């Protein structure tokens, strides 16, 4: 059977926990960055590479920029979907984009991007090894 192409995006579902909300029952803003991390880890897994295996091989994705635009609040016990895709990449950098929606209504709650440089365990910038280019849509 021929291998199916990986989708250009991945969707991860998250149920909002009480601990993620503020006293008004609204998700605290920093949790969106955590959800973006969940999104990119699951994006890599869906494309055939566990994030931790990439790190074990000495390839670290260092966050150098993060941006989140809040559109509508998520609340306790809502189910949200984090859609993640690679917006831009080259052998030294990857820019992930995110759209966070409320699962039931598909209402957009937030959008964002995170920019990462590829580094070695020594913290120095490096090029992404050729065998991982396809993971980030670099052919």
Short description:
The protein is of the alpha+beta class. The protein has a single domain (9-136), classed as Hotdog Thioesterase (Thiol Ester Dehydrase, Chain A). Helix content is 17%, strand content 37%.
Describe this structure in words.
The chain has a 5-stranded antiparallel β-sheet with strand order 1-3-4-5-2. It has helices at 30-46, 51-56; strands at 9-15, 60-70, 79-90, 93-102, 108-119. The chain has 2 helices and 5 strands; from the N terminus they run E-H-H-E-E-E-E. The longest helix has 17 residues, at 30-46. By secondary structure, the protein is an alpha+beta fold. A hairpin with a 2-residue loop joins strand 3 (79-90) and strand 4. The chain has one domain (9-136): Roll (Thiol Ester Dehydrase, Chain A), CATH 3.10.129.10.
What's the mean pLDDT score?
93
Strand runs, count = 5
Q: Give the strand order, joined by hyphens, for the main sheet.
A: 1-3-4-5-2
Number of helices: 2
Largest sheet: 5 strands, antiparallel
What is the CATH architecture assignment? Roll
Radius of gyration: 16 Å
Enter the CATH topology name.
Answer: Thiol Ester Dehydrase, Chain A
* Corresponding CATH superfamily: Hotdog Thioesterase
Order of helices and strands: EHHEEEE
At the first level of CATH, the class is Alpha Beta
State which percent range the strand residues make up. Answer: 35-45%
User: How many structural domains does the protein architecture include?
Assistant: 1
The share of residues in helices is 10-25%
Structural class: alpha+beta
State the end-to-end distance.
23 Å
What shape does the CA trace take? elongated
């Amino acid at each position: 059977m021929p291998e199916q192409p990986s989708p250009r995006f991945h969707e991860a579902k998250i149920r909002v926990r009480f601990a993620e909300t503020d006293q008004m029952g609204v998700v605290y803003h920093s949790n969106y960055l955590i959800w973006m991390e969940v999104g990119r880890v699951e994006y890599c897994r869906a494309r055939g590479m566990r994030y931790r295996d990439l790190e074990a091989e000495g390839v670290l994705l260092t966050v150098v920029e993060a941006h989140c635009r809040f559109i509508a609040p998520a609340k306790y016990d809502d189910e949200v979907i984090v859609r993640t895709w690679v917006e831009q990449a080259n052998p030294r950098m990857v820019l992930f984009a995110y759209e966070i929606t409320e699962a039931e209504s598909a209402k957009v709650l937030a959008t964002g991007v995170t920019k990462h440089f590829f580094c070695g365990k020594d913290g120095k910038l490096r090029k992404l090894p050729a065998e991982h280019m396809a993971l980030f849509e670099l052919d």
